[in-house]
Amino acid sequence: MLLVVGFVLFLLVLAYIVVGSLRPRHVVEFDPSPLVSRAHRGQGLVRDTVTIDARDGEAWRFFDFAAGSRLDPPDTAGWDLAFRRFRVIASTGVADLGAVPFYGVHEAPADSYVLTTWASDTVNPALDRWYRYDFFSHLLQSKSHVYVVRTADGRYAKLRFLSYYCTGTVAGCVTFEYVYQGSDSRALR
Q1: Burial of 96 (0-12, 13-18, 19+ CB in 10 A)
Q2: Domain segments of the chain as ranges
């Protein structure tokens, strides 16, 4: 009797795995954003969506909110976020506000910013798991958390990750929407 129960459980687990792997996959895909500086400093609130091509697993790709653009080495001074595949770090602090409505966040918090840990495996604990890994589809999907970044120039930006895929479901294109406060205010609406 125990053998039959074990076999039935085995078949149920196997069926669960097969059905899970056959379900349709909805993947949002984006083309990498062009390298165009938009110079947001001093403009007040700026809203944008950016896709960083982080497919290279060895090289960091840098983004500056004030410039509104990706920065390419060797000119990476003033970077705010860096990307390498699914890893994201910040030059300063990041606050994870959780799964709250993006446009419901009206002000940057005064504290609770987590700093990047610089080591052989550089990581920012607030951004370390910005995604969920789907065991069946083997795809990364955003947790839809809202993060507030204290930028290198002392300003604030809120962001939410949208996708990890380039056109053709190629992994490594990190897409996020953001609102950057180009003035000295903490207001983000």
Answers
A1: buried
A2: 26-181
